[in-house]
Amino acid sequence: MLIESALIIFLISNQEIFGSKAPRIKPFHFSGELSIGFRTGVMCIVIDGDPPFEFEWLKDSLSLQEKSGVSIKSVDEFTSAMSIKNLNADSNGNYTCRVSNSAGWDEKIDVLNIKGANSPKIKPFMFSGELREGLRTNVMCSVIDGDPPFDFQWFKDNRPLPQEKGQYSVQPFDEFTAILTIKNLDSSSNGNYSCRVTNAAGLDQKSGVLSMKGGLK
User: Fold this and answer.
1) The dihedral of CA 137, 174, 177, 199: what is its sign?
2) What is the mean pLDDT of residues 202-215?
3) Which of 33, 53, 62, 66 is deepest in the core (most CB within 10 A)?
4) pLDDT exceeding 70 applies to what percent of the chain?
5) What is the pLDDT of residues 93-116, one digit of tens each?
6) CA distance 124 to 195
7) Rounded Cα gap, residues 43 and 83, in angstroms
8) CA atoms within 13 A on the CB side of 136
9) Nearest residue to 106 via CA among 33, 46, 169
10) What span, in angstroms and rounded, lies between the C-alpha atoms of 25 and 16?
11) Do 42 and 207 touch, CB atoms closer than 8 A?
12) Rounded distance, CA 212 to CA 16, Å?
């Protein structure tokens, strides 16, 4: 019994000395109010386990390397900090901190989702096929995907649409939608109308042709 007890004590002591207690990481979280052009950073902290530790950062399951705009620094033997200096659309993704020692490993993951990082996608629109001079019409430009804020622009035959009083009216419906109204159709109303939507990540554009009965040029 004495030999067995001594052996157990020896094994426990060796486990403590040689770091056989696996690491445990504190969860980390990105701020929820991040936009393109901002900077951010997170810390990976080992709250339990025996050093020495090896830290590894991953993005979308691939090893994250230090590069322009991305910095990884050791704070102390229990902490690693990762920072991104200038957020852009490519910064979105799943970020993982993985820590290992001789006894095992642990990892924590958080999602970085930047406001305005997804470019807009517009729903196609078209004018009615039963239009003629003297009528009025409107079309709706709706953003079905992407992150606000958005900027809406209308064009006719690739030129900015002149919002002349009594002819064209462009009104926002909500942050995802703008409505173009032509109040009094005439022969000059025929043409190719485009809605262009931009945000910090990119742009999209859709077009519709207006061709009236009895109103052709």
Assistant:
1) positive
2) 86
3) 53
4) 88
5) 999 999 999 999 999 999 998 877
6) 10
7) 9
8) 10
9) 46
10) 19
11) no
12) 85
Find where tokens 């991040």 sit.
34
CA distance 118 to 198: 11
* Three-class HEC string of 138-194: EEEEEEEECCCCCEEEEEECCEECCCCCCCEEEEEEECCEEEEEECCCCHHHCEEEE
- The Cα-based distances of 152 to 39, 89, 160, 192, 201 in angstroms read 27, 20, 11, 17, 14
How far apart CA 111 and CA 41 sit, in angstroms, is 13
Q: Is the pTM of this model over 0.70?
A: no
Least confident residue range of 52-56, 75-79, 159-163: 159-163
Q: How far is CA 130 from the centre of its chain?
A: 41
Residue 27 three-state SS:
coil
- Who contacts 1 (Cβ-Cβ below 8 Å, separation ≥6)? none
Evaluate whether 189 touches 127 at the Cβ level (below 8 Å): no
Residue type at 22?
Answer: A
Residue with tokens 């958005």: 150
Phi first, then psi: give them for residue 116, nearest 5 degrees. 80, 15
Task: Report which DSSP code applies to 36.
Answer: T
Residues forming beta bridges with residue 160, ordered by sequence position = 155
CA distances from 44 to 93, 119, 184 (A): 17, 31, 63
